[in-house]
Amino acid sequence: MTRKHCFLVFLVSVSLTGVVETQPTHTSLKPQRVHFQSRNFHNVLHWQPGRAAASNSTFYFVQYKIYGQRQWRNKEDCWGIREFFCDLTNETSEIQEAYYGRVRTTSAGIHSAWTMTQRFIPWWETKIDPPVMNVTQINESLLVILRAPNIPYRNQKGKNVSMENYYELVYRVFIINNSLEKEQKVYEGTHRVVEIEALTPHTGYCVVAEIYQPMLDRRSQKSEERCVEMP
Predict the structure, then answer these.
(1) Fewest 10 Å CB contacts: which of 30, 40, 97, 138?
(2) Degrees to nearest 5, angle at CA 126 with 46 and 65
(3) How far apart, in Å, are the Cα atoms of 10 and each of 1, 23, 52?
(4) 108's torsion region: left (phi>0), alpha (psi -120 to 50) or beta?
(5) C-alpha span between 193 and 108 (Å, rounded)
């Protein structure tokens, strides 16, 4: 083969390689890191796009099923979406059941394979928010009223349902003396009303609380501070 012919072959090879690399493939479109994130039984499927960059022609399709079922179900609200998440709270409302979700991508007429989650059991995996907390000053004491977060479902009477209905919850209350910048735990137990006594007059205090789940050995983040200046 002459030097001229070798050079032409090289140009054709480079050109073809460039065309192939710019076209998305089934593998490069496949969604990555498909997983559930759950907080107070609000269960949302999340994923990341495949190695091929997302474009205006990229859409995602979501299905789900209960463990043991053969048939996958389409999530109609997440059928051909551009977002990287899908709310499956209503579809995963049996909190001790095991579920799977899966996602695939379509871009420029090319379909990826499905990417499936690991087995997801809401009761085991949901994370609990900090308690809702109200602090009232009464003479030289602080009265702390705590409430566990609600789940996204209502009971048959249409009323909110507390996370307390599903777990043993232990409340931990901490007080911070602002002049000493020192945090101290003043209560741990199941009562939702806590009185903090024997506080120093003319001193600022902040209170925070968290929830501990003994069965799962898991705790919530701490609540926002509620601060009071003692008279």
Answers:
(1) 138
(2) 55
(3) 12, 21, 26
(4) left
(5) 59
Q: Which residue has the higher pLDDT, 5 or 169?
A: 169
Q: SS3 letters for the chain? A: CCHHHHHHHHHHHHHHHHHHHHCCCHHHHCCEEEEEEEECCEEEEEEECCCCCCCCCEEEEEEEEECCCCCCEEEEEEEEECCCEEECCHHHCCCCCCEEEEEEEEECCEECCCEECCCECHHHHCECCCCEEEEEEECCEEEEEEECCEEEEECCCCCEEEHHHCCCCEEEEEEEECCCCEEEEEEEECCCEEEECCCCCCCEEEEEEEEEECCCCEECCCCCCEEEECC
- How far is residue 78's CA from residue 44's CA, in Å, rounded to a whole number? 11
Calculate mean pLDDT across residues 172-199: 94
Q: Taking 60 as the threshold, does the pLDDT of residue 13 lie above it?
A: no
Q: Do residues 180 and 227 lie in contact, with contact meaning Cβ atoms separated by under 8 Å?
A: no
The pLDDT tens digits of the residues spanning 194-217 come to 999 989 999 999 999 999 999 999
14-68 pLDDT tens trace: 333 333 334 455 678 899 999 999 999 999 999 999 877 567 789 999 999 999 9
